[in-house]
Amino acid sequence: MAITGEDVSLDKVVPITRNFTVEEVSPDCDLHFLGSDVTVWIESEEISLTVRLPFGSHTRMFLQEVIRCYPGSGVPDPQFRWLNRYRSASLEEQQSQQPQQSQQPQQPQQPVLADAGIPEADELKPNGKGVLGEQSSWSFEKPETTSTRLNKSKPEITSHMVRSSTVTVSDKAHILSMQKFGLRDTIVKSQLVQKEETYTYIQNFRFFVGTYNVNGQSPKECLRPWLSQDIQPPDVYCIGFQELDLSKEAFFFNDTPKEDEWFKAVTEGLHPDAKYAKIKLVRLVGIMLLLYVKQEHAMHISEVEAETVGTGIMGRMGNKGGVAIRFRFHNTSICIVNSHLAAHTEEYERRNQDYKDICSRMQFCQVDPNLPPLTISKHDVILWLGDLNYRIEELDVERVKKLIEEKAFQTLFTYDQLNIQVAAKAVFQGFTEGELSFQPTYKYDTGSDDWDTSEKCRAPAWCDRILWKGKNITQLSYQNHMALKTSDHKPVSAVFDIGVRVVNEELYRKTLEEIVRSLDKMENANIPSVTLSKREFCFQNVKYMQLQVESFMIYNGQVPCQFEFINKPDENSYCKQWLNANPSKGFLLPDSAIEIELELFVNKTTATKLNSGEDQIEDILVLHLDRGKDYFLSVSGNYLPSCFGSPLHTLCYMREPIQDLTPETIQELTLMPLQTEDDGTREEKPLKIPKELWMMVDHLYRNASQQEDLFQQPGLRSEFEQIRDCLDTGMLDTLSGSNHSVAEALLLFLESLPEPVICYNFYDTCLECSSNYPLSKQIISTLPTCHKNVFNYLMAFLRELLNNSGKNHLDEKILASTFGSLLLRSPAGHQKPDVAEKKKAQDFIQQFLV
Predict the structure, then answer these.
(1) Candidate from 172-176, 675-679, 716-720 with smallest mean pLDDT
(2) Domains of the chain by range and CATH?
(3) pTM of this prediction?
């Protein structure tokens, strides 16, 4: 399980003084895994620690800050008086006794292993070297303190275990990723990228790509028939799993013992004729991706980053979605994506939407924090694998089985949904898939090669697929592996020869020298100047959670320039929260151009003030050129008010649809203070609950009480937009769209409330009495009337759903976990809820469902 910052607490504070040292080490047990975690040995006057950290932008930034804080020569050590409150009495007593003990021999202090909350051995340092490429060593000691330090106890570290972090000039992948030190360095980097072909050559490396939906099972058989079938061992393994764990614990808390089980099974199943280093493991609930390379290639791997995107209900739950690992191999950037898309034959549009969500939301941090994140498409090679869940349509089960018996795979392929959607350019544009010359991989009776004989009798389908995008890629094989019978899916593999750009050191030096000489001639010759294709942007009829995009071009003149949108005076950001420029900064070579997209998106954070008129769709952007002038862009538009983002008590006073009311009325009602009881000052009595909430719940009560996977499977975005428009305009008496879309709209409505159903000021009290039902009922009875009514109405509806649990497969835990985080939310300024708090919120709601 990937543990986050919310799961750890402050344990020790180590002051950084001249006697402080930190050194990267490789314990004996980690030597086989060259791509293991970053392990650092930390020593100060008070403590000796061995700490495990993951490679990535956060670790790199932390270690750079440590170096920056180290006291320089001639600077007195800080006193750190503020630390006194954190020091234990025993430690202070021990320090006070040190003079008396100075005559006695010093007892070695045994180092302790400090778990930084990261899974073991799941990262690789850039190029297999130190994270901080600018340093030749991570030791901060001064020469005069060396002898003192050597007398202190430390873990046994031999010279071959300490990894150098020196950067050679030929390591262009690392040089291009180092932080910018001004415009000159940026120009050099950009021109090196442009002239890459002059100092690199193509070398083929063999990649094994595999995908396996294991249906929640533990490994029961050796994986070598899948992973090691070829005589030649691959250089790189990319192995993806789906449905690693189907338990509720894995779904809600992203924790599963099966990660270790399958990791061990894969490691044991790798080709026996080579030694491999694990570079990275990333998992989201049941979707896991593993990356291994031959040990001799590990030093040429750099810039390893991993990300996850959940596309389940509300776009967050990780039962469906994707995980990805990106890295640079020699001089070629590679991105591996493992995805599990929406199920069921009729849900191909949902699968298309999942694919697009993964593409748009999967973003990787760059080594240089000043550079914008990388998306999947910004890589030389993309390998996409997984249970894509596209089915065979328009044919009945028996006809599909008949064509499989006849091995008429090409005929069957014409009915394949993925084939149809790719041809329609709905998904995977620019990707290639090898010929499907093997029988479908789903669905089998577990433990056999027999097609599904269950009551549902699923039609066979090629759910499990591997596609690729990029140059110099040759697919050598694409097959299923019928020998493995653990799951109701069969694993799939593809083997590729991929041409990777490798640097020729001598040619690289010559190219670099030419660039520097050319730059010397043109430097400071002129002031940069650009032309903008457009400076005024108007966004018409902006709606809640509906993206609008306007674009313009920046055309550069004869001088290289660096541009960036900058903050206006006394403002914290270059634009308002609902606006974003993509990219917001960049570099232009002479006579080049770039397209900038202005993205406007109103969400729960910004909707309330736009509804009330406190904010408007108006902004001024300042585009700044380094060593040049500023350009001003104006943004304007109008926002259509929505029930999403409106307070509950406001909606109770709106008997008409919100868009039928005047802006003045909406503003008055939105800014109206929340009161425990109606004070009678308004002529019109409020509704007991908002009509919009009633419409959604009533629709689900009448149509979805027995709906399987309700509140677990997401709806379609297009249907959500129709539901939102219906609620905001009142044009239709009934809601359109699937039950799943209405259910998701209900959850999004509750999430968008500026004051949750259980008001913020009751949050701590609710957690305290999460196991005391009488006290919990008493708290609910003291809520403002509209909030109390909504809570009781929702609980009655959820209990009705549980009465139909035999058909909808819902239980108290699922509903309490889903609604707990929406009805009972931590107030602003409160630290992010940890697992224990989330569990208490779930328990509080669950009391009302039993």
Answers:
(1) 172-176
(2) 21-72 (no CATH), 204-501 (3.60.10.10), 530-639 (2.60.40.10), 677-847 (1.10.555.10)
(3) 0.72
